[in-house]
Amino acid sequence: MGVTLFVNWAVKPFSMALLGWVFLGWLFRPWLPADQIDSYIAGLIILAAAPCTAMVFVWSNLSDGEPHFTLSQVALNDAIMVVAFAPIVALLLGLSRSPCPGTPVAVGRALHRRAGGAGAAAAGAPAGARGRAGAAGAARAAWGRLGGRAAC
Known about the structure:
Blueprint: H1 2-27, H2 37-48, H3 53-62, H4 67-96, H5 103-115, H6 117-122, H7 132-145
């Protein structure tokens, strides 16, 4: 489990940021829109910083892995994600000087509010019971309030 935690939190975010800077910021720069390169790098950093815990279950099942160990690994990674994701992303975005305005945060908050957040699950509502159409409407409304533009 220590190897997984080390790779997920000490190696992967930084190596993916480095790959983003090399490929998007240097190698493919001539073929990308100049005003959007920093946004592409910021998006790559945000995506790369979080481990995909859903795929852990899929691959474990496909390889006849131990489900209890898989669950404990995913639970520990998710608990660490709550604490480590924001500081790592902030550090990497700061190092890359990539602007990341509040658009993703505002849309995420609108979706969380509209979908009921953790409150709906705690109240016993099944996942998605508050309506995917309602969440999509909240995202469109937040996007509209922000002028429909984002830098990351």
